[in-house]
Design brief:
The structure holds two protein chains of two kinds. By secondary structure, chain A is an all-alpha fold. Helix content of chain A is about 85%, strand content about 0%. In chain A, helix 2 packs antiparallel against helix 4. Chain A is elongated and about 70 Å long. The model of chain A has no long low-confidence stretch (mean pLDDT about 90). The model of chain B has no long low-confidence stretch (mean pLDDT about 90). By secondary structure, chain B is an alpha+beta fold. Helix content of chain B is about 55%, strand content about 20%. Chain B is elongated. Chain B has five helices and three strands; from the N terminus they run H-H-E-H-H-E-E-H. Classes of the chains: A mainly alpha, B alpha+beta. At the A-B interface, helix 1 and strand 1 of A face helix 2, strand 1, helix 3 and helix 5 of B.
């Protein structure tokens, strides 16, 4: 086999793999859904009653997960290709949720309002590594950066600022990912 | 030491079959129509190559329905993923040997 043939074959294999990775890239959907859910939580964060935000997420969280699972599976079946990392995503997302809850319970002061963003940002960085996604890495790093800024600034109603900042970051990432998918013809 | 060209597996090395395994390496499973479109093949041609891969134990095929529409899903077996990795390793080795790289 000639060197040029081997190079061409490897190039073709990589092109097909990349095309398939693009075809299973539905990350924009949960980014938009949870971005909107986080933004909508801001008014509950400003109500001076810690329970209001908890009740909001008790309802919005499971609805967001159910809608995302249903929509992504429907989109995958329509595209004719299913993501092979779904178990890895489930483990990472479960760890993000558990981490956020534990930090929220155990941290004091501003940390109890802001701390949950660190497991969420870290989880997004893990997803970025799985997906080889620069956008997911930017999203995770931005959320961690937001957390650090708010921990240092210690504003009043820190959880409200978290909701606004985190929601804006997730929606921005979702819009960018969706536009990129539309441009590739895979949305 | 075996020359890397002799390590290439004829079942995997064929262009279309290598393409099928390349797609399936990135997916839990892919539908027949997706493979046909990605590889720009006719139904009959794709079916023949999938059959060769299935007989070699490199892919598994699952037929079902989505509503009334019949759908055929194909996935790479563990052996299929290993065979693809070995093939790509041999190709890279071949290139570095021709280029004179270690």
């Amino acid at each position: 086999m000639a060197d040029a043939d081997a190079i061409q074959t490897l190039g073709e294999v990589e092109r097909l793999r990349e095309r398939t990775r693009d075809a299973v890239e539905w990350g924009w959907f949960p980014l938009l859904i949870f971005g909107v859910a986080v933004l909508l939580s801001a008014p509950f964060a400003w109500i001076d009653d810690g329970a209001a935000l908890g009740y909001y997420w008790l309802v919005a969280g499971p609805i967001g997960v159910a809608v995302t699972l249903y929509a992504v599976r429907t989109l995958e079946i329509r595209a004719g290709v299913l993501d092979r990392h779904e178990m890895a995503y489930a483990v990472v997302i479960a760890a993000m949720v558990a981490g956020a809850i534990i930090v929220g319970w155990t941290a004091d002061g501003v940390g109890s309002d802001v701390g949950h963003v660190f497991p969420i940002g870290a989880g997004l960085l893990v997803i970025a590594a799985i997906d080889r996604s620069a956008l997911a890495a930017w999203t995770g790093a931005s959320i961690i950066g937001l957390g650090i800024v708010l921990l240092i600034a210690e504003p009043s109603n820190a959880d409200g600022w978290v909701a606004l900042g985190e929601g804006a970051i997730l929606i921005t990432a979702g819009v960018v990912a969706r536009r990129s998918a539309v441009a590739r013809g895979t949305a | 030491v075996t020359h890397p060209a002799l390590q290439l597996d004829d079942v995997v090395h064929q262009r279309v079959r290598l393409g099928i395994l390349a797609v399936l390496a990135e997916a839990k499973r892919a539908e027949f129509g997706y493979l046909k479109d990605a590889l720009t093949l006719s139904d009959g041609n794709l079916s023949r190559h999938i059959q060769v891969l299935e007989e070699a134990g490199l892919v598994s095929v699952e037929k079902g329905y989505e509503g009334r529409r019949p759908r055929t899903w194909v996935s790479a077996t563990r052996r299929g993923r290993t065979a693809l990795d070995a093939e790509l390793r041999s190709l890279r080795e071949l290139i570095s040997r021709v280029d004179g790289r270690p």
